[in-house]
Design goal:
The protein has 1 helix and 9 strands; from the N terminus they run ββββαβββββ. The protein is mainly β and about 120 residues long. The protein folds into 2 domains: about 1-30 and about 70-120, no CATH class; about 30-70, no CATH class. The chain is elongated and about 45 Å long. It binds zinc ion (2 copies). One zinc ion binds next to loops.
């Protein structure tokens, strides 16, 4: 699988550790502008409702843009230790009561979720 060379190439990038073992790196590549085929679509601001092409200015609504994106995942299964890679829809689903990107270990079938934020233990 093609890996991003820098986070700049990505719409989304995350690195996670699983308990008690394993982990995953997941990313979504920025899409090429469908109009001029040159620019890489990007949100001008974090809160922006569209992704814009920096070259020709073409704008695509956030929802449409993200619905057609793919999440690439490289993982080490927390259950069986299998190392693999997979691609899923860039869409959060409900997993163990929380919203997460969910994928399946190709070896043991374990469903693995990448939640929005891992709970950090509280520091005192
Ligand atoms: Zn363009
Ligand atoms: Zn597994």
């Amino acid at each position: 699988m093609k890996q991003p060379e820098s986070v700049d190439e990505c719409l989304y990038f995350t690195r996670r550790k699983f308990e008690p073992k394993g982990g995953a790196v997941a990313w979504v590549f920025r899409k090429q502008c469908p109009k001029c085929k040159e620019g890489l679509m990007k949100k001008p601001k974090k809160t922006s409702p569209t992704y814009d092409c920096p070259k020709c200015g073409y704008a695509e609504p956030k929802k449409e843009h993200e619905e057609t994106a793919e999440l690439n995942i490289e993982y080490e299964c927390p259950k069986c230790g299998h190392k693999g890679e997979t691609t899923v829809e860039y869409k959060r689903r409900t997993w163990q009561g929380v919203k997460a990107y969910v994928f399946k270990c190709e070896e043991c079938g374990e469903k693995i979720g990448l939640t929005k934020k891992m709970k950090e233990p509280k520091k005192k």
